[in-house]
Design a protein that fits this description.
mainly beta; AttH-like fold; 13-stranded antiparallel sheet; about 50% strand; globular
Length: about 375
């Protein structure tokens, strides 16, 4: 087959797969084909092993690999985000058809550039199989069509040829994995089932090529990689969350989050601090407080986001300021939601001490996973 026809057909099949398994359709299909399959549970005592657990865990309901960071371009600093999601829909597993969507893959990519004033972003969705999308077990190797995030020879390779931009990055680890929560079991609420397996790789060194408007530029920077999987991530009392992943200038790292109730109050919280000397401390819910400092209202959706914060933890107190206010991400074509996710500067007593990313979910509507 002619290469052009092959690529066009693959993209068409990917698009059709996404349309056929849109979140609303999956939900309705799940009702018709009840009972739902059994999903694996997050339980104490499980030991995370690497690189085995960098790969996919298809027996769990949801999973994501989430890379964010800052790039030093020739003109100015930029933020970037790459996320791959795997979801196991509530469909019967005994359907022998190859078209049964047993696993759904979704990907988001974005650039935060103050010169543009808003995100450049793109998204993809496809069912696993037909050489169109997949998530390997035993090692990190996840892809949708020509988008991919893989581990090879101890480094992570991100290839994202998007509509308005392209990433071709190598991310090299400088720390061992940061196990979040209790040895990798991160609680998201008081109920035993409200939890995830979760680890982070902070202070990743980024090198590669960023292409925009047909112009390729060599860039470097620092990134953060999160990997989480769960079957009951969002407690029924929670409407969304606020999260930060911060690379500190002294070589340390800070992760903190709070789950919010439908009334907007703190429902649960957690996080961890990795000091520059490599010593890690994990926070209890009462040791993390998010206090909004300034809000921004989206001119497109009318959603009101707290984009600047003071965050107090048992290890340190920091102020968070966005690289730019408009970092709203509209992903209704894939995950069915709108959220704010963007690059932030970190200040302590008014002085810069780090850079990272802030994620705000459940402000547009209650988040449903």
């Amino acid at each position: 087959m002619h290469p052009f026809l092959s690529v066009s057909r693959r993209r068409l099949l990917t698009l059709l797969g996404g349309l056929l398994v849109a979140p609303h359709a999956l939900g309705q299909a799940g009702k018709r084909l009840a009972p739902a399959p059994h999903f694996a549970a997050v339980v104490p005592g499980f030991t995370l092993r690497f690189p085995r657990d960098e790969g996919s865990h298809p027996e769990f309901r949801i999973e994501w690999w989430y890379a964010t960071g800052w790039l030093e371009s020739a003109a100015k600093p930029l933020g970037f985000q790459i996320t791959f999601f795997r979801a196991r829909p509530e469909l019967k597993d005994d359907n022998p058809s190859a078209f049964t969507p047993r696993q759904i893959l979704i990907a988001h990519a974005a650039i935060s550039d103050p010169a543009l004033g808003r995100l450049q972003h793109d998204q993809r969705i496809a069912r696993e199989g037909f050489a169109l999308a997949g998530a390997a077990q035993g090692r990190l190797d996840v892809w949708i069509d020509d988008w991919s995030l893989k581990q090879r020879d101890g480094v992570y390779l991100a290839r994202i040829p998007s509509r308005d931009f392209s990433f071709d990055f190598t991310l090299a680890a400088t720390h061992r994995p940061m196990l979040q929560g209790n040895k990798g079991l991160s609680r998201k609420g008081p109920r035993p089932e409200s939890a995830s397996y979760y680890y982070s790789l902070p202070q990743l060194k980024v090198q590669g090529t960023l292409t925009r408007a047909g112009r390729a530029e060599s860039v470097g920077g620092t990134a953060w990689l999160d990997h989480e999987w769960s079957s009951s991530y969002l407690d029924r009392e929670a409407a969304g969350w606020d999260w930060i992943g911060i690379n500190l200038d002294d070589g340390g790292a800070l992760m903190a989050f709070q789950m919010r109730s439908a009334q907007g109050a703190k429902f649960w919280a957690g996080g961890s601090y990795l000091a520059g000397n490599g010593v890690q401390r994990t926070f209890e819910p009462g040791e993390v407080e998010f206090t909004p400092v300034r809000r921004w209202r989206s001119p497109r959706t009318g959603t009101d986001y707290p984009v600047a914060w003071r965050i107090r933890t048992a290890a340190l107190t920091i102020d968070i300021a966005p690289l730019m206010d408009d970092q709203e991400n509209d992903t209704r074509a894939s995950t069915g939601t709108i959220y704010w996710e963007g690059a932030v500067r970190v200040l302590q007593d008014g002085e810069p001490v780090g850079r990272g990313y802030l994620e705000l979910t459940g402000y547009w509507r209650r988040l449903r996973l």
